[in-house]
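Thread: Newbie trying to understand structure tokens

Hi all, I'm a second-year student working on a class project, and my supervisor (Dr. K.) asked me to get a predicted structure for one chain before our next meeting. I've only ever worked with sequences, so writing a 3D structure as a token string is new to me. If someone could post the tokens and maybe explain what I'm looking at, I'd be very grateful. Here's the chain:
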Amino acid sequence: MVNTLVFEVSQEEDGGFVTECLTEDIFTQGDSWEELKANIREAVKAF
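---
Reply by user tm_fold:
Sure, no problem. This is what the structure looks like when written as tokens:
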């Protein structure tokens, strides 16, 4: 069975990004969009 993970992404005032998974307890951040995507992949693997 495949679980669907839904993330909400917000841009911070300093230009960085933060994200929270709405379906599981996964949180991460990144200074750029590319870094955020890499950090999401890493956080999901660790979960």
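A couple of things are worth pointing out once you decode it. The radius of gyration is 11 Å. Helices lie at 33-46. Feel free to ask follow-ups in this thread.
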